Amino acid sequence: MTEAEIYAVLTQVFRDVFDDDEIVLDSGTTAEDIAGWDSQAHVNLVVAAEMKFGVRFRTAELESLHNVGEFVQLIAGKHKGG
Amino acid sequence: MEQLAWLPAHADLAAAISAAKRIDNPADRLSQAMHLAGFRHDFTAIGRLDKLAADGLAEAAASSRPMAAGLAACRLAILSSHTVDHLVPAIRVAGLRRGLAVSVHAAPYGLYRQALLGEDPMMAAFAPQLVLLALDARDAPLDLPLESSEAAVTEAVTARVDELRHLWRQARARFNAQVMQQTLVPADPPLFGSFEALVPAAPNTVIGMLNAAIRVAAREEGVLLLDLALPAASYGQVMGLADPVRWHQAKQLVSPVLAPLYGDLVARVAAAVMGRSRKCLVLDLDNTLWGGVIGDDGIDGIKLGQGDATGEAFIAFQRYVALLGKRGIILAVCSKNDAAVAEAVFTQHPEMALRRGDIATFVANWNDKAGNLRQIAKTLNIGLDSLVFVDDNPAERDIIRRELPEVAVPELPEDVANYPARLAAAGYFEATGFTADDAARSRSYALNEARRVAQEQATDMDGYLRSLKMVLTATDVGPGELSRVTQLINKTNQFNLTTRRYTEAEVQALAANPAAVALALRLTDRFGDNGLICVVLARPDAALRSGELLIDTWLMSCRVLGRQVEAAVLEVLAAAASRRGVSTLIGEYRPTGRNGMVAEHYPNLGFVPLDPLPDSPEGTTCWQYDVIGGRAPKHFIELDAR
After folding, report:
1. Which residues in chain B have their CB less than 8 angstroms from residue A16's CB?
2. Last residue of a domain, one of B273, B300, B316
3. Per residue in B60-95, is it b (16+ CB within 10 Å) or e — as a string?
4. Which NCBIfam families match (chain B) (predicted)?
5. Structural domain count, chain A
C-alpha cells in the first residue's frame, strides 16, 4: 500500500467516524483541526482504522499518536512488516 | 461469526446514509434512519445512523403526541463501572430497529452507587423507566486469598449480591424503574486451565459463582438480566468482546467493534419491557421446515428425519420451533402450496416434530405472501409488528421487507443446521417473564381455529356464543396472580385503555388498597382454557368525588375479542365496586397510536361522556357509568366470581 493509498482510506475512516464528508487530511492534521476529535472519538478512530486496514495497534503505540502523519506512518510500518 | 447476521446487507449503506443526511425534514430523516438501521452495519455506521435520527427523536420527544413513527419512548439510565459512552449510540440505533425511541442517561462510570444511594438530581430529573447496572469483574473484587475455602467464597459472594439487591430495591423505590443487571464477563484468563473451576477462589470460579448468585437473586427480586456472560462465552474468544487493549486505553469493557451487538442486546430487553417483543413466528414450508418441495417430491420424497444429514437438520429446526411454541410464541404457517397437500405432511409424515395442533393459523395457497401475512395478523388479532417471518427464499424475504416493513424477516444461513442459532441470535422473542399461561398459549391459539370452524357452522352469532359455554372466573389479584398480571399489564398494546405500565410492587400496592378493585379474569369455554385474559384495576383518585372510582387500567388479550367478554367484565367490576360503596365508575381512553381498537370501548358498554380529568394527555376521552342504573350490554358468559 502506498502512502497515498493509505491517506485515501484513512480519509474515508475519518469521514465515517466524524460523519463529515468534507474532511481532508494532511500529515499535520491534529485533534485541534477536527471538531469532535476527543478521547472517545480517538478510540473510535483507532478501532475503525484497525478494522479497515486489518492491523492491530499495540497499547504502547496508541499513546504516541498525535497527528495524522504519525497515524499513516504507523499503518505503513505494519503493512511493510506483513 | 458476524454481528447482526440476521439483518440483510445493504448494497452501499455509507452512501445511503450520506443521501439521507440531505433530507430536510427531521421526521423524514428519522424514518429513513429507522429503515437503514434494519440493515447489517458495523460500529462506524452506528454513529452516523444515530446522528441521522437525533433531530427527529428530539422533535418527537418534545411533543406530547404519541410518536408519529410508532416508536415507544423509553428512558434508560446506565449506571456502570466502566466506560459506556461509546455504546450509547448503538443502544439508540438498535432501539429504532426494535420500536423504541430510547433516551439514555449515562452516569459517570464508577459512580453507580452514588446514583442510587445518594441524592442525584440528574437521575431524579431524568426519571428512568429502566436502570441498567453495567458492572464488570474488575469492579469491587472480592480479594479472597487463592486458598480460601468454598464456604468463605460463598459468604463473600452472598455479601456482594446482597449489596446488589439493595441497589436494585433503591432503583425501584426511588425511580419506580425496572432494573436490568448485566452479568459479569470474565475479563482475565484462567490461572489453572481446566482445573480452574475446581479451585473455589480462582478468579473465573468466583465470577461464575457471582453470576449464578446474581441470576438467582434477579429471579427473586423481579430484576431482568442483560446476560452478557452468555454472548461473551460465544463471541468473547472469537471477536474480543472484552478487549484488554481497549480496557487499558479507555476503560471500555465492551470493545467498540462489538457495540452493534451490545446495543441490540440492551435494546431487545428494553423492547420486551416496553411490550415490543415479537409474538408470532410465521413459517414457510418447502425447504424451510423440510427439504424439497412437497407438491413435486411427495410425502415420501421430501427430506425429513433420520438417516439423512439434511433431513435430521430439518427435524432439529422443527424441534427448536416446537420449543418456541411451548414457551408461548404463536406459530403460524404461510406457504405457497396446495392446502390439503401441505397439511397432509403435518398429519401423515411420521417424522414431523411439529404437529398440526402446534400451528395456530395455517395459510397455504397461491396468493402473494404479503397479503397472507396481513391475513394471519388479522386472524390472530395481533399487529404486523408482532410477526417474524422465516422463509428460505431470498426473493420472498425481500418482497416482504419491502411490502411489510413492520414484519421482521431474518436473513437465513445457507445451511438449515444453523437456522436455530440464527433465530436465537436475532433475539426477537426476549421475555420479561415466563408463566404457565405462556406455556399454554400456543394450544389456546390453536383452539381458536376450532372455535372459528364452530362459528362458521353456526347459523347466528348468538347461537354460536351460547354454544361456546363460556365461563368467566374473576379473582382479586393476590400473590398467585401477581406475576402474570404484571406481565400482561406490561405487554398489552392493542386492547389497553390507558397503557399504564406497572411493576409487581406497584400492582401489589394497588391491590392491597381496600378501596381499590384489582381483578384478574380467566375465560374457559367448551374448547378449553384461554388462561388469564383480562386485567382491571380501579382505584380512588384525588381528582374524583367520593363514591367515584377511576378505572386506572382495563386491558384484555385479543385472543378473546368479539365474545362479549367486555360486558361480562363490566358486570363483575360493577358488582365489586358496589360492594365497596361506589356508585359511579369513571373510565378513560388514552390513545397511544396502537390502541385505536378500544377508542369506543366505553360508549359501547353504555358509559356516557364526561370532560377529561385535569392533566390528562392530549386526545384522552373520559366516561362515566352508573353502577346501580347502568345498563351493560347482554352477554352469554357465566360468571364465577371468587
Report:
1. 14, 44-45, 47-48
2. B273
3. beeeeebbebbbbebbbbbbbbbbbbbbbbbbbbbb
4. FkbH, HAD-SF-IIIC
5. 1
Cβ pair B86:A13 closer than 8 A: no
In this complex, which of A13, A17, A59 lies closest to B245 when CB atoms are compared? A59
Instruction: Give the CATH number of the domain where residue A36 resides.
Output: 1.10.1200.10
Confidence class of residue B165 from pLDDT cuts 50, 70 and 90? very high
Q: How far apart are alpha carbons A75 and A46 in whole angstroms?
A: 11
Long-range contacts of B566-569 (CB under 8 A, 24+ apart): B566/B601, B566/B604, B566/B605, B567/B605, B567/B632, B567/B633, B567/B634, B567/B635, B567/B637, B568/B472, B568/B635, B568/B637, B568/B639, B569/B472, B569/B474, B569/B519, B569/B521, B569/B534, B569/B536
Is B86 in contact with A43 (Cβ distance < 8 A)?
yes
Give the pLDDT confidence score for residue B238 in this predicted structure. Answer: 45
Q: Of the candidates B18, B45, B256, which has its C-beta nearest A47's C-beta?
A: B256
- Which residue from B minimizes the CA distance to A42? B250
Cα distance from B42 to chain A (closest Cα, Å)? 9
Concatenating the DSSP letter of every residue in B144-194 gives --TT--HHHHHHHHHHHHHHHHHHHHHHHHHH--EEEEEPPPP-S--SSGG
Assign residue B241 the CATH number of its domain. 3.40.50.1110
Enter the ipTM.
0.89
Q: Which of B22, B44, B55, B93 to mutate to test the interface with A (most CBs of A within 10 A)?
A: B44
Distance (Å) from the C-alpha of residue B179 to the closest C-alpha of chain A?
27
Return the sign of the alpha-carbon dihedral for residues B311, B316, B320, B323: positive
Which range is most confident: B18-27, B53-62, B241-250? B18-27
Check whether residue B367 and residue B268 sit in a common domain: no
Q: Are residues B371 and B339 in the same domain?
A: yes
- Cβ of B48 within 8 Å of Cβ of A19? The answer is yes
Whether A43 sits inside 8 A of B249 (CB atoms) is: yes
Same domain as B286, residue B244 = no
* Same domain membership, residue B219 and residue B87: yes
Model pLDDT, residue B614: 87
Q: Is the confidence at residue B335, as pLDDT, over 80?
A: yes
pLDDT digits (tens, 9 = 90+) for B357-395: 899 999 999 999 999 999 999 989 899 999 999 999 999
Residue B521 sits in which domain range?
461-641
* pLDDT, averaged across chain B: 91
Q: Does the distance separating the beta carbons of B43 and A43 come in below 8 Å?
A: no
- pLDDT by residue (tens digit) across B75-117? 999 999 999 999 999 999 999 999 999 999 999 888 899 999 9
Residues B404 and B311 in one domain: yes
Residues B105 and B186 occupy one common structural domain: yes
Q: Does the pLDDT value for residue A82 go beyond 50?
A: no
What range defines the domain where residue A55 resides? 3-80
Q: Which of A13, A19, A62 sits opposite B51 (nearest CB)?
A: A19
Question: What is the domain count for chain B?
Answer: 3
Given an 8 Å threshold on Cβ–Cβ distance, is A44 in contact with B257?
no
Question: Is the model's pLDDT at B1 over the cut of 60?
Answer: no
Q: Are residues A48 and B43, on separate chains, in Cβ contact within 8 Å?
A: yes
